[in-house]
Amino acid sequence: MKKLFYFLIVSLFFTTIQAQTTAEIMVEKPLPTLQNNSEAPPQDYDPADLTWHGRRFKVTAGVFFPTNNTQVEVGSNNGDFGNMIDFEKDLGFNKNTTSFAGAFEWRISRRSRLGAEYFYLKRTASKTLQKEIEFGDHTYPVNARVSAFMDNQIYRITYGYAFVSKPKYEIGALIGAHIMLADVGIKLEGVTAAVEYRDDFDFTAPLPDLGLWTEIVLAKKWGLYANVNYFAIKIDNIDGRILSYNLSVLYNVYKNFSLTAGYTGLNIRVDAEKERLNGYFKWGYNGPTLTATYAFGNHVKFYKH
C-alpha cells in the first residue's frame, strides 16, 4: 500500500513538472518558422481569463463506475466467534456497480480553497452459501439461502493550499477528512418467519487524510487534475487507514460548463469495536468517473511571476 502511495506521489510531481517544462519550452524557444512569420497568430487565450479555470466556485456531479472488493468480519470482542467474509465471492455481491458522486469547491483566495464531496453506494445480494459463515450473533450454515446488504455514505471535507500558483498550473497540499457511515447485514431466508434471523453492524468512522494535488491548463479547452491522499489513525474505538487518488481530464464544452472523465480510487480499512461486537471492514473501490462541472463567480487573481 505504501509503495503504491509513493508511486502516485512521484507520478503526480512528474506530470506537473513535465507539463511545466513543455509550456516553458513552447514559450521561450518557439519554432523558427513562427519567429520568421510575422503573420503567425499568437496564443489566442490567457489562462487567467478562461471561463472554466480559476473561478471562485465550482459544482460537480456525475456517475462513478467502481469495481468493488469488500471483506467484512463481525464477531465477538474476544475473537472466539466470527470469520472473514468476502462479500463478492461468499455472498454474491456484484463487483461492478454504478453510484452517484457530487462535489463543491470554494476558492477563498488565490492559494486557499475549501471543498466538500459526497458519495453514496447501496448494494444488495442473495445467495445459497457455499461455506459456513459466522456473523454477529449467529451462524449461517452451508446451503442456507441468505440475503445481504451494504450501505455506504461518505462525506469528505478538505482544505487545500497552493504553494505554487501560476496561471497555467498549480501545485498544493490538502488536509481533510472522509467521514464514512456504513451499515452491513445478513439475513437467513427461512420458509417461515419463525426460522428466520438476521444480524447487522453499523458504524461511523472519521478518517483524516493528508495529500497533494495539481491542476494544469493543457489548452484553451482542456485541463488536467490529479490528487493523492493517505493517512492512518486510531480514535477511541475506531482504528482506520485510507488511501485515495484521482486523475481526471476536463473538456470545456461551453462557457462555464465542462465535462470531465477520470479514474478514482478509495481504499479503506476500519476496525470498529462496539459494546458486544467487534467489526473489521476492508473496502476498495476503483474505477472510471464521468462528471459535469459548472464554474462560476469572479476569477481569482493569478501572478505570472
> Oligomerization state of this entry?
single chain
The gyration radius over C-alpha positions equals 24 Å
Going by helix content, strand content and strand pairing, the class is mainly beta
Low-confidence stretches: 1-10, 12-17, 19-38
Tell me how many strands there are.
14
Identify the overall geometry. Answer: elongated
Helix percentage: 10-25%
Q: Provide a count of the helices.
A: 3
Q: List the helices and strands in order.
A: HHEEEHEEEEEEEEEEE
The N- and C-terminal alpha carbons lie at a distance of 38 Å
> How much of the sequence is in beta strands?
over 45%
Specify the biggest β-sheet: 10 strands, antiparallel, barrel
Strand order of the largest sheet: 1-4-5-8-9-10-11-12-13-14
The residue-averaged pLDDT reads 85
List the helices and strands and how they pair.
Blueprint: H1 2-28, H2 32-35, E1 55-64, E2 67-76, E3 85-86, H3 87-90, E4 99-107, E5 112-128, E6 133-135, E7 138-140, E8 145-165, E9 169-188, E10 197-217, E11 222-235, E12 238-254, E13 257-273, E14 277-299
Antiparallel strand pairs: 1-4, 1-14, 2-3, 2-14, 4-5, 5-8, 6-7, 8-9, 9-10, 10-11, 11-12, 12-13, 13-14
Description:
By secondary structure, the chain is mainly beta. About 10% of the residues lie in helices and about 60% in strands. The protein contains 3 helices and 14 strands. The strands form 2 sheets. It has a 10-stranded antiparallel β-barrel. A two-stranded antiparallel ribbon has the order 6-7. A hairpin with a 4-residue loop joins strand 4 and strand 5. The longest helix is centred in the N-terminal third of the chain and has 27 residues, at about 1-30. The chain is elongated and about 70 Å long.
